[in-house]
Every structure is written in structure tokens, then in C-alpha cells.
Design a protein that fits this description.
The complex is a heterodimer of chains A (359) and B (263). Helix content of chain A is 18%, strand content 28%. By secondary structure, chain A is α+β, with helices and mostly antiparallel strands. A 7-stranded mixed beta barrel of chain A has the order 13-20-17-18-15-14-21. In chain A, a hairpin with a 2-residue loop joins strand 23 and strand 24. Chain A starts with a strand and ends in a 5-residue tail after the last helix. Chain B is of the alpha+beta class. Chain B has 2 domains: 99 residues, Gyrase A, domain 2; 154 residues, Cyclophilin-like (Cyclophilin, Beta Barrel), CATH 2.40.100. Chain B is 24% helix and 26% strand. Chain B contains 5 helices and 14 strands. Chain B is elongated, with a radius of gyration of 20 Å. The two termini of chain B are 35 Å apart. Classes of the chains: A alpha+beta (359), B alpha+beta (263).
Chain lengths: 359, 263
């Protein structure tokens, strides 16, 4: 019996991602992988997987999936919910829970509350070969994931094992990343900017434009002037996800997971590791501010986040099952579904009628 | 060694590895300046530092090190900030660089790559020639008559930054970058020339096309070219380029056979 996921509808851009491709940036291969490593760890912890096991990254709209001959267990990160048609009824699973799907059942994955991106973990992982040490999909070079591309209708993703026995699991409480200004460690090219530009970039509000993909985000806001003698170009040098680079236009670009390995534009600062996961959630129209912090503050912020992640992992509990149905999941799932329904009344036809009222 | 924000003065004399400058690249990477400018000497020093750091990391002497990435005049060290701290890894890296002095004596390969400068595959050649006050044939002759050094692979998988272009071929980047540069484009910008292995956005001037695949995850080393390799171009016709591209795509030719000399 092969556990597999048959893609009935792929969603806008669903790719396989893990921690990214280490060791090949010197040959021009971007890191790729997920930006939100916290979510990656948590969905894998919910499933008992290795922390860096590959997951599905769902962007904009989620896929519709039919499960093959063996049951499959999935874990939903923040930002995604799932609905399974089961015995003529819709069963909902909320973010930060696992859901076990029986053979032949159809699962619909949805982004909740206008989320931009969400991760879906697979118990035991996907049966895909690592390419250059990683299963992360990097579309431009056609490597990783499933044939180096985003999922398409008719794809069949094999899981390494069927759903393990045991109840579904959940985090005790949804995991949320911090709000407020995005923290940045200044450098490495502060000296390529005027002092006014530096003050602006670390205080002014910028808007996320529609020019947004896995490579980066173009921001729009007050123009940043380069130092007149040093200019808007540098000899190309190493980059990392989270770099803020400023080309001649003066409008900053945030570099994300698929960003180029080297770049020739000056960088006033780089987003700290603790706030990198937040960049994954940015949507066109969002407004953000950058705040300069010290290295000590950056390291303390990462320690704090790490402590919260470990607490969340320690909080994982098994669902209570009643006749095979999970009452808590039904209820919290409906809460999420209800929000979606209010925003888009025609989104889940019949949903309000066929589910019990929330507690 | 300290974190400084000032770039090195390009005119500064060469300096030993024990007095390099570190610049922070967020809280999980830093960049080490090894020369004031790009060029032969910078490429040699970058190779030396890269080898020293990778060797030390492989034998466990730099805990927390994730990856060493070389660039034109610097290397960037990526590390795991949960496994080590900046102050600790900075000290290890400094120590490794200060201790090691031996030169890297790798095999240097010279490649002869087919290049087509037919106007159909060289959208900017005529305009570039006008700007440079040369004929298109003269631009081609200057590009073909040169042995280039690969200074760095980066930007995109397998993308070689090669130099130096002769004085008479230097143009600034285009004011309006193209959103789609065709794969295989041979391009020039400032002192450098390159081949785009993939279709991508790009702001360089396109003067030809090369049918050779520069990257494959199936190869033992996925990028065909390596920093410190030398490259020269051999003009071929548009029909030959098409035939060659077909041969490479079908596996009838192996691009590794294009090495014309080793030293």
C-alpha cells in the first residue's frame, strides 16, 4: 500500500521546501528552502518528523489533494487550515494541528485570514530524492522538489510511510511571531548611504509592493540616497536572506530565500534571524518599519524565540477522539472557517448549515 | 581584526591574511574583505582564504560554520547562530586565517567556449559598438582575442563573473535592466564579461550567445566553470550554435571536453 497525495488542483504556487541547499552558494545556487524555519520545525514536531524534513509550502491559494491507498497524516502550520469531505460532511482542521486522512478522501487546503503562505508537513516525509543535499524546489534551475517545479494538476507525491498509528496532535495554543518593527542589524554597507538615508531606512514606513516572490520583495516608500562619493554599486559580494539592498532607484528590496548568492547593490542592514520568519508572511499592501538593533539584541531575540519554540514543542498534546472525530479540532476548525465565511460568504457553500455551532 | 564599515581603499597595497576586515551580514553571516579591488591578486587571496576556512571547518575547527562563499575580493562566512555566537566564530576564523599561509595550488583549467556574435543572437552588439566608437567586428575581435579569468561563480547557478575586459570594451550597466535575458547570452558590463546560464532579469549588455550548458545538478561539480579557471571564446556561426545546443541537450557532447589546457 503506497501512501500518496494526488494533486487534483495545485494552488497558485505549491512547492516542496526544507531548510534549503547548503554548500552550493559558491557555485551560484541560492539557499532556497522556507523562510519560516520556526513553522518548519513546529509542523515536523507535530508529526514526530526530523526538524528539517521537507514540507509543502503553499502560497496565495492552497491545493486540493486526494489521498491514495494508505492513510496520510499532515500537519498544518500557521496560516493554513484544511477541510476533509468525510461521510458527506466537512471536517475542518485548524492551523497547528495534524489531520489524518483516509484512503480516497479529498482534502482541501486553504490559507486563513488572507495569509500569504503556509506550510503543510507530511508524516514520515515525501519520497523525493534530495538534489544537491536538499529537497527544496528552486524553480529557475529546475532542481529539487518534484522535477524542480511547483506542483501541477495530476502530480502524485509519494509519502515514505503511511500515517503512523495514534491520535492527531496539536499545539496547546497557536504559535504567533512577534509584531511591530522588523529588527535589522546595520551593515555591511551603511557607509554607502547618507546619514539622512540611514535614519530614514530605520524609521520610515515602507509598503510591500505587488513585486513579490520567493526571490524578494520590492518595497515602496521614502527614497534612500546613496553617499555621493560611494554610489549605488559595489563589487558583487555575498548575500543572505533578509538583506535589504538598495539599487540606484533608492527603493529598497528585501532579499528572500531564493535570492541571488551575490549582489552588487549596497545594503544598509540585514533582518535578524529572529525576524526572518515574519518576512514570509508579508503581503502586498502591508506596511512595515525597520528598527536597527545591536548584535547583542539580535542574539537575545533569537534566544527568546528559541525558548518559545521549545515551549511550543513541549506543549504538543494528543487530540481527544470521539468515535474517530476530534471534537476540539471540529470546534476550533469551525472558528477559523467561520471567519473565512464571513469574509467570503460564497466561499464554502453549505458550510454554515452542515456544521454545529461553535462552543 | 575588527568590524569596520569602511571599504578598503582600492589603491591600498596588498595586505596579509592576518589583517583582514570583517563586516557583519546580519546575525548569521559576515563578510571578510581580502583585497581592496578585484583582480588576479584578489582572486588568489580569496581562493587561499576559502580553502583555509573550508579545510578547517571540515576538520571541525570552526564549530557552527555553515558555508564559506567566495566573491570577487571577499569571502562570506555563513554560520548557525543557534550553534555558535558571532564573537566565538569570529575568533576561530581569525585564527585560521592568521595561521595558514600556504598557497593553494589547484589545477588551472583553460576553456575554449563556442560563441556566436551573429546580430540575431547579440541584441546589443550594434549599439555597444556605436557607443564604443568601434565596428561590431572590432568589438567581437576584442572579445575573442582575450583570455579571461573566472573571478567568481555567483548570482545564478553556474554564472561566471570573468575579467578583465580590455579598456576599449567597458560599458556601464544598462539604465533599464531587461526583465528577460535569454539563457546562453554572453554579456559585458564594466570590467567583466559573463554568460547567463538561465533566462533571468539582467542589466548587462548582450553581445553574443554561447550554447554550452554551464550547470547541471547531475554533474559531480554542478557548476561547469570554477573560480580561477581561464576562458576564451571561439566564434561560431548561428547554425553551428543551434547544432551545438542540440548536441548538448541530447547528451551527444559533453561540455567538460571543452577544456583546452591544464596547468
Amino acid at each position: 500500500m503506497t501512501a500518496l497525495l494526488e494533486i487534483l488542483a495545485p494552488g497558485a504556487m505549491t512547492t516542496v521546501q526544507d531548510l534549503g541547499r547548503i554548500g552550493f552558494r559558491g557555485q551560484g545556487v541560492p539557499l532556497a528552502g522556507v523562510l519560516d524555519r520556526v513553522a518548519l520545525r513546529l509542523v515536523n514536531a507535530l508529526l514526530g518528523n526530523d526538524p528539517g524534513e521537507a514540507v509543502l509550502e503553499v502560497r496565495l491559494t492552497g491545493p486540493r489533494v486526494r489521498v491514495g491507498e494508505a492513510p496520510v497524516r499532515l500537519a498544518l502550520g500557521g496560516g493554513v487550515s484544511a477541510r476533509v469531505a468525510r461521510s458527506g460532511k466537512a471536517v475542518d482542521a485548524a492551523p497547528w494541528t495534524t489531520v489524518t486522512i483516509d484512503p480516497g478522501e479529498i482534502l482541501e487546503i486553504r490559507l486563513v485570514d488572507d495569509a500569504m503562505v503556509g506550510l503543510v508537513g507530511i508524516a514520515g516525509g515525501l519520497d523525493l530524492p534530495p538534489v544537491l543535499g536538499s529537497r527544496s524546489t528552486y524553480v529557475r534551475a529546475g532542481i529539487g522538489g518534484l522535477d524542480g517545479r511547483s506542483l501541477a494538476e495530476g502530480d502524485r507525491l509519494r509519502c515514505r510511510v503511511p500515517a503512523p498509528p495514534g491520535a492527531d496532535r496539536r499545539l496547546a495554543a497557536p504559535f504567533t511571531l512577534g509584531a511591530g518593527a522588523i529588527r535589522v542589524l546595520p551593515g555591511p554597507q551603511e557607509n554607502h548611504f547618507t546619514s539622512e538615508a540611514l535614519e530614514t531606512v530605520f524609521s520610515a514606513e515602507y509598503e510591500v509592493t505587488k513585486d513579490l516572490d520567493r526571490m524578494g520583495i520590492r518595497l515602496s516608500g521614502p527614497s534612500l540616497a546613496h553617499h555621493p562619493e560611494r554610489g549605488a554599486e559595489i563589487l558583487s559580494e555575498g548575500m543572505a536572506p533578509g538583506c535589504i539592498q538598495v539599487p540606484g532607484s533608492g527603493q529598497p528590496i528585501l532579499v528572500l530565500a531564493d535570492g541571488q548568492t551575490v549582489g552588487g547593490y549596497p545594503k544598509p542592514g540585514v533582518v535578524i534571524s529572529a525576524d526572518l520568519p515574519r518576512l514570509a508572511a508579508l503581503r502586498p499592501g502591508d506596511r512595515l518599519r525597520f528598527q536597527a538593533v545591536t548584535l547583542e539584541e539580535a542574539e537575545a531575540a533569537l534566544d527568546h524565540l528559541e525558548g518559545r519554540v521549545q515551549e511550543a514543542i513541549a506543549s504538543i498534546t494528543e487530540d481527544r477522539l470521539v468515535d474517530g472525530y476530534d471534537l476540539e479540532a471540529l470546534q476550533s476548525g469551525n472558528l477559523i472557517g467561520g471567519v473565512v465565511d464571513m469574509a467570503q460568504p460564497d466561499h464554502f457553500p453549505g458550510h454554515l448549515e452542515e456544521t454545529p455551532p461553535c462552543a | 581584526m575588527s568590524f569596520q564599515n569602511d571599504s578598503l581603499d582600492p589603491t591600498e597595497e596588498d595586505h596579509p591574511l592576518e589583517s583582514v576586515t570583517l563586516r557583519p551580514l546580519g546575525d548569521s553571516a559576515f563578510t571578510i574583505d581580502l583585497a581592496g579591488d578585484m583582480g588576479e591578486e584578489a582572486t588568489r587571496r580569496v581562493a587561499q582564504a576559502t580553502t583555509l576556512l573550508r579545510t578547517a571547518a571540515e576538520s571541525g575547527h570552526i564549530p557552527g560554520l555553515v558555508e564559506v562563499v567566495r566573491a570577487l575580493r571577499s569571502v562570506t562566512v555563513h554560520y548557525d547562530p543557534l550553534a555558535t555566537r558571532r564573537a566565538v566564530i569570529e575568533a576561530s576564523v581569525t585564527e585560521v586565517l592568521a595561521k595558514g599561509a600556504e598557497d593553494v595550488d589547484g589545477v588551472e583549467r583553460q576553456w575554449l567556449l563556442p560563441a556566436c556574435y551573429d546580430p540575431a543572437l547579440a541584441p546589443d552588439l550594434e549599439e555597444a559598438a556605436r557607443t564604443l566608437d568601434l565596428s561590431p567586428d572590432e568589438v567581437v575581435a576584442r572579445h575573442v582575442g582575450r583570455v579571461f579569468r573566472v573571478h567568481m561563480i555567483g548570482f545564478l547557478p553556474g554564472f561566471p563573473f570573468m575579467g578583465d575586459l580590455p579598456e576599449g570594451l567597458r560599458l556601464p550597466r544598462r539604465a533599464e535592466p531587461r526583465t528577460r535575458v535569454p539563457a546562453g547570452s554572453i554579456a559585458i558590463a564594466d570590467r567583466m564579461t559573463a554568460i547567463y546560464p538561465w533566462e533571468s532579469p539582467g542589466g548587462w549588455t548582450l553581445i553574443g550567445s554561447c550554447p554550452v550548458p554551464l550547470f547541471s545538478a547531475a554533474w559531480e561539480r554542478p557548476a561547469l566553470l570554477t573560480a580561477a579557471d581561464r576562458v576564451r571564446f571561439e566564434p561560431v556561426s548561428a547554425s553551428e550554435v543551434k547544432a551545438l545546443a542540440g548536441d548538448y541537450a541530447a547528451g551527444r557532447r559533453d561540455p567538460h571536453d571543452l577544456v583546452e589546457a591544464r596547468s
